[in-house]
């Protein structure tokens, strides 16, 4: 055999063997359809478009409800319908509950966030510890803090209505810090808030395609002073904030336990179950890390998504005054003018409940949820999905499916009502908004109760109308969301005024005398 023929065989043989191995593995099934990939970068351009959940929805309309987008050697599938999500993430959750262990996680200091941890025993230990404090009955323990936090929020809006976003962040951070750590946040520039907000910024890194280091891990070793490596400064700041939140906050709780100030908090109760003098020091160390991880994740998961949904509510109220008027009529009839709404009023406030659902549906805080990862090869609808595929659920597309929610772009709480009561036949947005399968959000009941009491109290005492220009004319606002893992309205300016003098007095009478919650 001529030397050139031998060389050709040696070149072709590995490729042929690889094809044969792939054919056996896939059983001859094709990959799901998708757009043509670019050389080297794959489908990166599709990942970096504004509001990518909308462009991905368009791709699924073109190629099918599951669309394949390989990206720099990584297998990625967009799940574009409720049917696909149910089949792959719910029914097959034993195979699709893993998470990609991206280089971004340690770079951003997020290794303690158990929502990003791989599916396995370590994750299950975290989730069990979390669940015992946030299952439905347990979540009711926090109602008094939720009420106090909302009353502080109302007072701050009354005093400084132009600082809406700042007040949202302060009020919700103070509540969750009290519940988790037993600590009081007393000022808007409190270091707790400063560091926790810096830590939350790390979520920006996890929108697929935002940082090239996600797909080119060697870039993590490039010094920050090298041109184009400024991302290193972002990650360094996020790591510092994450370590501070994880360690300093728990340390503050330990100090407070000595004097009984923080003993009712989640962290204090978990710490009380650790016997550090136990012979099994390794186990005690692991349990301490779980305590830190539970609090770390509870704050990140609860605060950011609640911030987003409440901001969305203000946008909706400026655009839909008729919704606001109907909600206020219901509150006036059920609650009256002499008190604020309470959690116990919830069964008698179906329209407020419908607004909560519509706020979750209209502009989901997590339009792509948190992507899952398959752990085994799978077949779906005649297509082959390789093990290790990143499964990105297009939550936004499911919540804007006109077959399920007619006129999906309209903020219309009435869609959830029939004969004046909640209609059980309408798909609950929480099915999508709080995640899927075995990775569904364990804090969803707490989040739902927080949204209800805030929406009910806000609409009971305030009128929310469009912002005004310098001539006193209304400014047109439209809903545009940020391109980040947790998505926010880019513009939630509005005019906030008490509905009446009686409403103003009600706010003043119920506001806690200090910013200390109880």
UniProtKB/TrEMBL annotation:
<keyword id="KW-0408">Iron</keyword>
<comment type="pathway">
    <text>Secondary metabolite biosynthesis.</text>
</comment>
<dbReference type="InterPro" id="IPR001128">
    <property type="entry name" value="Cyt_P450"/>
</dbReference>
<keyword id="KW-0812">Transmembrane</keyword>
<keyword id="KW-0472">Membrane</keyword>
<feature type="signal peptide">
    <location>
        <begin position="1"/>
        <end position="20"/>
    </location>
</feature>
<dbReference type="InterPro" id="IPR036396">
    <property type="entry name" value="Cyt_P450_sf"/>
</dbReference>
<protein>
    <submittedName>
        <fullName>Cytochrome P450</fullName>
    </submittedName>
</protein>
<keyword id="KW-0479">Metal-binding</keyword>
<dbReference type="GO" id="GO:0004497">
    <property type="term" value="F:monooxygenase activity"/>
</dbReference>
<keyword id="KW-1133">Transmembrane helix</keyword>
<dbReference type="GO" id="GO:0005506">
    <property type="term" value="F:iron ion binding"/>
</dbReference>
<dbReference type="InterPro" id="IPR050364">
    <property type="entry name" value="Cytochrome_P450_fung"/>
</dbReference>
<feature type="binding site" description="axial binding residue">
    <location>
        <position position="441"/>
    </location>
    <ligand>
        <name>heme</name>
    </ligand>
</feature>
<dbReference type="GO" id="GO:0020037">
    <property type="term" value="F:heme binding"/>
</dbReference>
<keyword id="KW-0503">Monooxygenase</keyword>
<keyword id="KW-0349">Heme</keyword>
<dbReference type="InterPro" id="IPR002401">
    <property type="entry name" value="Cyt_P450_E_grp-I"/>
</dbReference>
<dbReference type="GO" id="GO:0016705">
    <property type="term" value="F:oxidoreductase activity, acting on paired donors, with incorporation or reduction of molecular oxygen"/>
</dbReference>
<keyword id="KW-0732">Signal</keyword>
<keyword id="KW-0560">Oxidoreductase</keyword>
<comment type="similarity">
    <text>Belongs to the cytochrome P450 family.</text>
</comment>
<dbReference type="GO" id="GO:0016020">
    <property type="term" value="C:membrane"/>
</dbReference>
<dbReference type="InterPro" id="IPR017972">
    <property type="entry name" value="Cyt_P450_CS"/>
</dbReference>
<dbReference type="Pfam" id="PF00067">
    <property type="entry name" value="p450"/>
</dbReference>
């Amino acid at each position: 055999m001529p030397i050139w023929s031998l060389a050709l065989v040696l070149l072709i043989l590995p490729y042929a063997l690889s094809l044969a191995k792939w054919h056996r593995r896939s059983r001859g099934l094709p990959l799901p359809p998708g757009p043509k990939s670019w050389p080297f970068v794959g489908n990166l351009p599709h990942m970096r478009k504004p509001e990518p959940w909308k462009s991905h929805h368009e791709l699924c309309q073109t190629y099918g409800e599951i669309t394949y987008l390989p990206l720099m050697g990584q297998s990625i599938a967009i799940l574009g319908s409720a049917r696909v999500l149910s089949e792959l993430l719910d029914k097959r959750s034993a195979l699709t509950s893993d998470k990609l262990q991206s280089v971004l996680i340690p770079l951003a200091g997020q290794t303690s966030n158990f929502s990003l941890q791989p599916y396995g025993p370590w994750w299950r230990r975290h989730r069990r510890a979390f669940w015992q404090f946030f299952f439905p009955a347990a979540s009711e323990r926090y109602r008094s803090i939720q009420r106090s936090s909302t009353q502080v929020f109302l007072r701050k809006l009354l005093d400084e209505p132009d600082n809406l976003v700042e007040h949202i962040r302060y009020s919700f951070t103070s509540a969750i810090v009290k519940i988790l750590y037993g600590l009081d946040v007393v000022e808007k520039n409190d270091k707790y808030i400063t560091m926790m907000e810096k830590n939350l910024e790390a979520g920006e890194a996890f929108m697929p395609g935002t940082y090239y280091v996600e797909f080119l891990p060697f870039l993590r070793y490039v010094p920050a002073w090298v041109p184009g490596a400024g991302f290193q400064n972002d990650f360094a700041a996020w790591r510092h904030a994450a370590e501070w939140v994880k360690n300093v906050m728990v340390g503050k709780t330990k100090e407070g336990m000595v004097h009984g100030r923080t003993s009712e908090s989640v962290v204090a109760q978990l710490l009380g179950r650790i016997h550090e003098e136990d012979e099994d020091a390794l186990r005690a160390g692991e349990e301490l890390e779980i305590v830190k991880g539970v609090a770390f994740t509870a704050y990140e998961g609860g605060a950011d998504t609640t911030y987003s949904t409440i901001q969305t509510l203000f946008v909706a109220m400026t655009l839909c005054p008729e919704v606001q008027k109907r909600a206020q009529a219901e509150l006036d009839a059920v609650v009256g003018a002499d008190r604020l709404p309470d959690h116990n009023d919830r069964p008698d406030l179906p329209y407020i409940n419908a607004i909560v659902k519509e706020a979750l549906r209209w502009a989901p805080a997590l339009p792509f949820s948190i992507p899952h990862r398959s752990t085994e090869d799978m077949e779906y609808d005649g297509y082959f999905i390789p093990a290790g595929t990143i499964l990105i659920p297009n939550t936004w597309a499911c919540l804007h499916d006109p077959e399920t929610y007619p006129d999906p772009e309209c903020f219309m709480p009435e869609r959830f009502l029939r004969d004046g009561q909640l209609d059980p036949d309408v798909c609950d947005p929480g099915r999508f908004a709080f995640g899927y399968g075995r990775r569904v959000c364990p804090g969803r009941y707490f989040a739902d109760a927080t949204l209800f009491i805030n929406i009910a109290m806000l609409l009971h005492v305030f009128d929310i109308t469009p912002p005004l220009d310098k001539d006193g004319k209304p400014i047109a606002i439209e809903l545009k969301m940020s391109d980040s893992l947790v998505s926010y309205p880019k513009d939630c300016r509005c005019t906030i005024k008490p509905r009446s003098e009686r409403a103003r007095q009600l706010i003043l009478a119920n506001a806690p005398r200090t910013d200390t919650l109880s």
